Amino acid sequence: MKKKVFIISAAVVGFLLLFLFTAPFIFRGKIESMVLETINKKLTAEVAYDKVDLSLFTNFPKASISISKLSIVNQAPFAGDTLLFAEHIHLKMSMMELFNGADKPMNIEGVDVQNAAINVLINEAGVANYDIAIKDEEDEQDPSNDSPFSLNLNQYALNNIKLVYHDLSSKMKMVVSELNHSGSGNLAQNILDLDTQSQAKVSFEKDGTALLNNVNLGLKAVIGMDLEKNLYTFKENEATINQLPLKFNGTIQLLAEGQEYHLDFATPDSSFKNFLALIPEAYAGDIQKVKTEGEFRVSGKVNGKLTETAFPKMEIVMASDKASFQYPDLPKAIRNIALDAKIINDTGLINDTYVLLNKLNFQIDQDVFKAEASIKNIMDNALVNAKLNGIVNLANLSKAYPIKLEKPLTGILKADVVTQFDMKSVETNQYQNIKNTGSISLTNFNYESEEMAKPLQIKEAALVFNPNQVRLNRLELKTGTTDLLATGTLDNFYGFLFSKQNLKGNFALNSNNFVVSDILKASDTPTDKTETEAKKMATAKKEPLKIPSFLDCTITANAKTVVYDDLTLKNVVGKLIIKDEAVHFQNMKTDVFDGQIAFNGNVSTKTAVPTFDMNLGLQALDIAKSFSQIDMLKRIAPIAGVINGKINSNIKLNGKLDGLELTPIMSSLTGDLLGQLLSTKIDANNSKLLTALDSNLKFVDLNKLNLDNLKMHLELKDGKVKVNPFDLKYQDIKVVVGGEHGLDQTINYKLNFDVPAKYLGDDISGVLSKLSATDMAALKNIPIQVGLTGDFSKPKVTTDLNQAVTNLSNQIIATQKDKLINQGSNALSNLLGGGKKDSNTDTKTPEETQKEAKKEETINKIGEGLKDLFGKKKKE
Asked: How far is it, in rounded angstroms, from Cα 486 to Cα 511?
């Protein structure tokens, strides 16, 4: 009997195990088809997932459905935007639900979503990207109609969720990150208690202004829920804002037109540590060991409806008096802290909400700081009143509060400012409505950090507030060997602070010595860092340099010396206009390279690839220095070390800039250069091109070539420098030079020489020496063409010297033939006309005939000799 029982039990267990193992394969197709049916019938979006799995072991005795890598991508008008991506979704249900027929939905009892991102977007027209449910009148009448799944939850969890809510119509954005939320309760009932735990970081901005930035929120609460009335009641609960604890009482009810609130909240105790708890932990440090005195209380009441036309009445209070705190490892305390701040609405109209800062006082040592302010008429035209008065020794801040600084601050900050304004006056620049008086000064300020190239020392900074502007009476600073003295005005300081207007101003900057490397820190080399840090630097994405779009300033600059890398500029003067993400240079001048450069133009970073457009005037610049130290000039005309002397030039250039360094992209350059050389000398030995040319032209010594007052016109386009033809003269040889070279140093030039015959070398000197002076003068100059190709480092020289010699030989032959023929004709005329003894005799004497034959033979021999001579290849 026992054996039978054991066999039967074993069989049952075996059957169950077999079922548990085989059921996922049996029901997987059914589950997947149900998921697809739900998606296709309910959503107007592109839905994709990796796979759907069924497990009977994960939550035994419950069945689990897992959907991995689920994504929902919007269609028009948000085509391509991902509404949701979830790495894992787990659904929990009874195993018996697997056997439900097609007419009976499966009841889902639990949902667990892990590692998901939700992107909610509302466009300018008010259309939301989450409105993707298919409209079906039959479904609206019976929501459960034909749905393969039914929610009867008693447990759910959201783990590591990021939610972005961006409403373009109201210019509002909220980001909830690192959200972990769970709840348990019988959601199948209309009245229940839901036990929840939540933790998240929240950021919120309105009209581009950040109101919350990664604020840590936490809530452990039992919430009583009446689902028929949409009424939610706070029961046992504990909330935290950063480290500040709060307890809530009351209810929230969802209405068709909005919500209705009847809430009150307060800190559970009045310890002043509650104030420190409001500050993010990264800045407040460990507050448990901080010694505090006095009280800090937060309390509030919110009652009424929040709809499009109604706003709840409220009073939120933060108060403290005669409080102090001191960190255990810091020498100084912050004492006599007094705070009285309120947010009040006592009418139920949103525009009647106002903020009062009746008092904010504190003291460090003998320095006392006081402030008070109010903001009224918030939604319509905010009215702001504020007063600041006090002295703060910055050196005491790090001695009383755990500020994380690489080096301690020093300096004295003094403030005495009274301001009163309304936002419409700020937005419309109605400065007569702004009441603004007082001053802020900072003296003997010292600061340094790793991000800065050199320690910063501000000897004095003085701001004076007037109704229509903020005046910088004096800014005197030093960093490294750089000194700077500045004065100026800001014309719309409040418009910049509160209304997103551009910051307008005029400044005068003066410096005896301005070293750029004192201001801009050079990139660290890998040897300065550990191997790990070096790899991070190598892989880190560098941000392109951008001229701030909010700046609208004019700067008049005067610097006696400016040092940039190895370049030293003297007497730099001119005007810089910064506007619309561009810097415009006006009447800029500097002494450099023993001459002067004047320039006008602009640099713009408004487009994805920065651009520039410059006009430069070079006056008597040293060629060797300027064309060796300025890379752009070196690439355009590589003449440094070859030509020594001075240059005058007008250069017009435009092109693109490298976004990281704001240096010219050489291949993009377009423009032209008009240049004149002064007092120049050539050193052909420093140029492979000139050395090759010199070795192929025996009749020219390039070191003796006179380039003084030579004028040239260069054009830049498509990475090429075109040199328009220009004339040179070497002794009595004329030369025309033209062609082009690439910024990659390739060359293609033609040199046309007009050479007198006497320079063509020893090969024909013997023949030329036999010619009379009259014959030599009658010879025409010989054109010789020279070609230069290859590149500057490996030039190729071609000439047509052989053809030139042939042309000269033909000239001599023709000249001598004509001369001898003329001589023969004259002799014959004399013979026939005046020297005959017998007029009837028409024949020559034998002696005369013999003499004429010898002359003809001489002419022929000269011609043949010249042909043989000039037909030979020129000796190398």
From this structure: 9
* Residue-wise pLDDT tens digits, 139-180: 545 544 555 556 677 888 999 999 999 998 888 899 999 999
The answer, yes or no, to whether residue 9 has pLDDT greater than 80, is: no
| Tokens describing residue 20 | 């548990």
Reference 713, options 636, 823, 620; nearest CA is 636
Measured over the CA atoms of residue 249, residue 255, residue 260 and residue 266, the dihedral's sign is: positive
Question: Quick check: is 109 in a domain?
Answer: yes
**10-14, 434-438, 481-485, 608-612: lowest mean pLDDT where?**
10-14
pTM: 0.67
Beta-sheet pairing, 503-511 with 551-564: parallel
Answer whether 354's CB lies under 8 Å from 374's CB: yes
Rounded Cα distance between 74 and 81, Å, is 5
In a domain, 648, yes or no: no
- Tell me, what's the pLDDT at 526? 46
Query: What's the number of domains the chain is made of?
Result: 1
Distances (CA, A) of 784 to 32, 388, 750, 866: 88, 86, 10, 19
Q: How many CB atoms lie within 10 A of CB 737?
A: 19
Alpha helices (runs of H) in 401-466, residue ranges in sequence order? 423-427
pLDDT tens for residues 578-612? 999 999 999 999 999 999 999 999 999 999 899 99
**What distance in Å separates the CA atoms of residue 481 and residue 13, rounded to the nearest whole number?**
87
Quote the CA–CA distance of 626 and 629 in Å, as a whole number.
5
- Domain region containing 99: 16-134+144-170
Interatomic CA distance for residues 816 and 827, integer angstroms: 17
118 domain-assigned:
yes
Q: What would the DSSP string read from start to end of 214-280?
A: EEEEEEEEEEEEETTTTEEEEEEEEEEETTEEEEEEEEEEE-SSSEEEEEEEE-SS-BTHHHHHHS-
Instruction: For residue range 208-249, list pLDDT tens digits in order.
Output: 777 788 888 999 999 999 989 999 999 989 999 888 889 999
Residue type, 804: A
Domain membership of residue 59 (yes or no) is yes
